[in-house]
Write a structure and sequence with these properties.
heterodimer; A: about 290 residues; alpha+beta; five-stranded mixed beta sheet; about 25% strand; B: about 180 residues; mainly alpha; 8 helices; elongated
Chain lengths: ~290, ~180
């Protein structure tokens, strides 16, 4: 049985505690008697949690999520798990996108075989383990040599190692030249100008930059994670990121957002940073106003 | 709420017999009803959903001798009616505010990530890849990605949602077990 779109919306409202008692009676009775419908509720729960972590809920939905949905410890656990899964998937996707410098090697021990087999890149080239690189086996690349003299074998081996090292360095240098160039810009929390308008800090993007690394300075690092949403002058969201951890910039904690120049045409922007508490509740931390010039 | 009634093996057996003549199916049905009652009480923001679900079941068992012969339809509906009464009663005394969420320190987060990674490695390759592919990307890129994934697997988008959900549930179970094992 296919669940209709209006039922999806109804389930979402129910999960956020927005349905009146009269409206939820039929839905709850169905939850008890219809297995597919119940599974749909569980899927909707996961989708709601993912949307929350990705910053895709409206302010009102967010409030209902935090005040109603998150009230039970089981759901808090689900949010923690979703956050961990999100991190894992992001790391796995990054690992999959990274160029493979070495072919896969057969493992040596049984334990390592299991670990390797589990983390090895599949046929489509995607490695699903973010730590796949650390599991990759160090195979003897000279095993194909059938030379009985150890001296000759080691000499040949040394020559191959030197050649391989030169090749790798060359490849790395080439890759570095072709890598994305981000222009770093540090922005402090924005205050109001004398006229009462927000004072916009100017961000000049060099012509050769592929993107901008916005370093949003924090007055203090008081939260487990941070979230950041950048909006243009029309109020449209340009980028939204969650699960951010601060790094030190000039000795001060800062949230770092990398954004492509194409997403930042000249104009005025506002970056809103929120801090996320251990239970998942978020609080507004600061706003940063900046004007992009090219 | 009434809690002086004691559940006996005999009365519990009677409940199972009412749910299904096949004892195995009856056990599954019982678990299903209990889990869903907990979900409903959770959705109603009740502080102790498991206790309320158990109280509901106890009351149904207590009433069983009177109703089982005359009741027609899915027994789950009867549970629902009783659950509503139990819920109303639970609202009479002012509910105590929910305790603050347990703190999550950096070590705990790291432990959870390690467990997640271990559980991911235990999954069959196809399932692992499906989870990573299904949950990657954001917004429109994610929607496009899922469409392509469904086409590649030769299934409808909704079937893909269900498949990813089931994988996620088994992964979450594995992580929970791993966390309790490493905490012990």
């Amino acid at each position: 049985m296919q669940i209709e779109a209006k039922e999806h919306a109804l389930i979402r409202q129910y999960l956020l505690g927005r349905l009146p008692e009269s409206g939820s009676a039929g839905l709850e009775e169905r939850l008890l008697t219809d297995s597919e419908f119940y599974e749909e509720l569980l899927i909707s729960e996961e989708e709601l949690i993912d949307a929350y972590l990705a910053g895709r809920l409206s302010a009102a939905e967010r409030q209902d999520f935090e005040n109603h949905f998150m009230i039970s410890p089981e759901r808090q656990e689900k949010v923690r798990f979703a956050r961990a899964l999100k991190r894992y998937v992001a790391a796995a996707a990054t690992a999959a996108a990274a160029p493979e410098l070495a072919p896969e090697m057969p493992p040596v021990s049984e334990k390592e075989t299991a670990s390797f087999a589990a983390s090895a890149s599949p046929a489509n080239g995607m490695s699903t383990s973010p730590r796949a690189a650390t599991y990759r086996e160090k195979r003897s690349i000279f095993s194909f040599l059938v030379i009985r003299s150890p001296l000759l074998a080691y000499s040949l081996a040394a020559a191959v190692v030197v050649l391989a090292a030169i090749t790798i360095v060359t490849v790395q240098n080439t890759t570095r030249h072709e890598a994305t160039h981000f222009a770093a810009v540090t922005i402090s929390p924005g205050g109001a100008s004398r006229s009462g308008d927000q004072a916009h800090q100017e961000v000049r993007i060099p012509g050769d930059a592929d993107g901008v690394r916005l370093q949003l300075k924090l007055a203090a690092n008081q939260y487990h994670y941070y979230e950041c949403t950048i909006q243009n002058a029309a109020g449209d969201t340009v980028i939204s990121q969650t699960s951010l951890t601060p790094r030190l910039v000039d000795g001060q904690p800062a949230i770092i957002i990398e954004i492509a120049t194409a997403q930042l045409p000249p104009g005025e922007y506002r970056a809103k940073v929120s801090g996320v508490q251990p239970g998942g509740n978020s609080e507004s931390v600061d706003s940063y106003y900046f004007r992009v010039l090219k | 709420m009434r809690k002086d009634w004691v559940l006996t093996q005999e009365s519990f057996d009677a409940l199972l017999a009412w749910l299904s003549p096949d004892r195995e199916q009856a056990g599954a049905k019982y678990e299903e009803i209990r889990t869903r009652l907990i979900t409903i009480f959770t959705c109603r923001a009740c502080g102790e959903p498991e206790d309320l679900a158990d109280e509901t079941i106890n009351r149904v068992i207590n009433k069983l001798p009177e109703i089982k012969d005359g009741f027609i339809g899915d027994p789950a509906r009867y549970f629902y009616g009783v659950a509503n009464n139990v819920h109303k009663e639970s609202l009479r005394p002012k509910p105590t505010p929910a305790p603050p969420p347990p703190s999550t320190d950096a070590d705990e987060i790291e432990r959870e990530l390690k467990c997640l990674e271990r559980c991911m490695q235990q999954l069959p390759k196809a399932k692992r890849e499906l989870l990573v592919e299904y949950y990657q990307d954001e917004k429109s890129a994610k929607i496009d990605h899922r469409k392509h994934l469904a086409v590649r697997l030769g299934i409808a988008i909704n079937a893909l949602r269900i498949r990813a959900h089931r994988g996620r549930v088994s992964l979450a179970d594995c992580v929970r077990d791993c966390l309790s094992a490493t905490a012990a």
